[in-house]
């Protein structure tokens, strides 16, 4: 936001050069964090107007005005390109220091800084936190080769294959994490391509590992009923319980619930409430008629003031901690998370015979193939249930009869 961006030029009257001048410095503050930038401009202390931040000498004052204008332009450009700006990024852009990293690890640190700013903006730190591990794995691989860093121009296809082998053999990672690390490496290289540091990606023929189909963590109908029947005395944990139940009955992810406002709630001609809003992840509209239990939860919070969200949610990590603890308290074996509620909703829909098309609309899926995963889950459960039934029947048939 523009209101967080401030420029304060000043001079240090205690540090006067032999020619009687002192340096004009500039303190830039963004979101409460400041950094000092040297302007390269000098003036006599008696020529400095501290109230207006200007120099009485027209020539030097024009240079200072141009410097401030360059700061404004750089801030606007970074905000447009990256969606967020830090004081450090702005200083680098103005001074020309490390604006385009030429080496792999420096490029990774620059991208992690962008992700950190983005995490604060969207109230989700998962991608930023994951980048810490993948960046560390890159550093470990370079150290195993006796390198502190490597220029983008020195990266070859052999580098990619060796990195993948290092992750599997030396660090013992499974295919999922190996792919995360390769994705991070490719991300940095494609940024270098976009910046003109490289002409093309030398790792295009380094293939990702084949991994198992994703496991959709969800809870059973009986576990959801147990959760609904067990209110919590702690207000924070009770909020987490209500949000898990609400998402299990609406399919809304954390970001969707966090940004749910009264304007997204409508009512049919029969008086039934529904939620209609674009999903934060895909911008595909979701339409969900409200289950009576979800409606009861909704009525406990803000449904009238459209300047505030419906639910007073904490940050994602805090909510995850409370939901995880809730699962432990209730004896739910799975590692409970808020997103498990969304998977629970999808599984319940398909198991109740709701069509894939209707389920996709309610879940806001951009691709119906994403919804069909839930059909595979229920088919798999039916097969396992039938296998258990056959085992019990066979065991009864094998029991010796009483003589």
UniProtKB/TrEMBL annotation:
Domain Tyr recombinase: 214-387
UniProt-recorded Gene Ontology molecular function terms: DNA binding
Pfam families: Arm-DNA-bind_5, Phage_int_SAM_5, Phage_integrase
Swiss-Prot/TrEMBL GO biological process terms: DNA integration; DNA recombination
InterPro entries in the record: Arm-DNA-bind_5, DNA_brk_join_enz, Integrase-like_cat_sf, Integrase_catalytic, Integrase_recombinase_N, SAM-like_dom, Tyrosine_recombinase_XerCD
Keywords assigned: DNA recombination, DNA-binding
Keyword DNA-binding carried by entry: yes
Keyword Metal-binding (UniProt): no
Similarity comment text for this entry: Belongs to the 'phage' integrase family.
PANTHER family xref list: PHAGE INTEGRASE-RELATED, PROPHAGE INTEGRASE INTD-RELATED
Protein name as catalogued: Tyr recombinase domain-containing protein
Native species: Parabacteroides johnsonii CL02T12C29
């Amino acid at each position: 936001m523009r209101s967080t961006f401030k420029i304060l030029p000043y001079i240090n009257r205690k540090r006067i050069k032999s020619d009687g001048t002192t340096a004009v410095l500039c303190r830039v503050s963004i979101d409460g964090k400041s950094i000092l930038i040297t302007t390269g401009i000098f003036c006599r202390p008696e020529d400095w107007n501290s109230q207006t931040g200007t120099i009485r000498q027209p020539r030097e004052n024009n240079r200072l005005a141009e410097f401030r204008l360059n700061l404004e332009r750089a801030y606007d450009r970074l905000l447009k390109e990256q969606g967020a700006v830090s004081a450090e990024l702005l200083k680098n852009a103005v001074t020309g220091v490390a604006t385009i990293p030429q080496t792999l690890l420096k490029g990774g640190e620059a991208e992690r800084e962008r992700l950190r700013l983005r995490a604060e903006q969207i109230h989700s730190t998962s991608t930023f936190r994951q980048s810490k591990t993948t960046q560390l794995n890159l550093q470990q691989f370079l150290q195993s080769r006796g390198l502190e860093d490597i220029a983008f121009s020195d990266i070859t296809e052999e580098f990619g294959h060796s990195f993948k082998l290092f992750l599997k053999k030396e660090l013992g990672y499974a295919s999922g994490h190996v792919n995360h690390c390769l994705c991070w490496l490719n991300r940095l290289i494609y940024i270098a391509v976009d910046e003109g540091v490289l002409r093309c990606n030398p790792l295009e023929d380094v293939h990702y590992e084949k991994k198992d189909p994703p496991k959709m963590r969800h809870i059973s109908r009986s576990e959801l009923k147990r959760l609904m029947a067990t209110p919590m005395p702690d207000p924070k944990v009770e909020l987490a319980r209500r949000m898990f139940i609400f998402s299990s009955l609406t399919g809304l992810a954390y970001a969707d619930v966090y940004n749910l406002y009264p304007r997204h709630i409508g009512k049919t001609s029969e008086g039934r409430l529904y939620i209609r809003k674009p999903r934060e992840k895909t911008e595909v509209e979701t339409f969900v008629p409200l289950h009576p239990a979800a409606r009861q939860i909704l009525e406990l919070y803000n449904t009238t003031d459209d300047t505030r969200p419906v639910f007073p949610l904490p940050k994602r990590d805090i909510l995850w901690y409370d939901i995880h603890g809730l699962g432990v308290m209730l004896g739910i074996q799975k590692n409970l998370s808020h997103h498990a509620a969304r998977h629970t909703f999808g599984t319940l829909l398909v198991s109740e015979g709701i069509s894939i098309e209707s389920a996709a609309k309610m879940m806001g899926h951009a691709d119906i193939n994403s919804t069909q995963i839930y059909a595979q889950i229920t088919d798999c459960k039916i097969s396992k249930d039938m296998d258990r039934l056959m085992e019990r029947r066979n065991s009864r048939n094998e029991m010796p009869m009483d003589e």
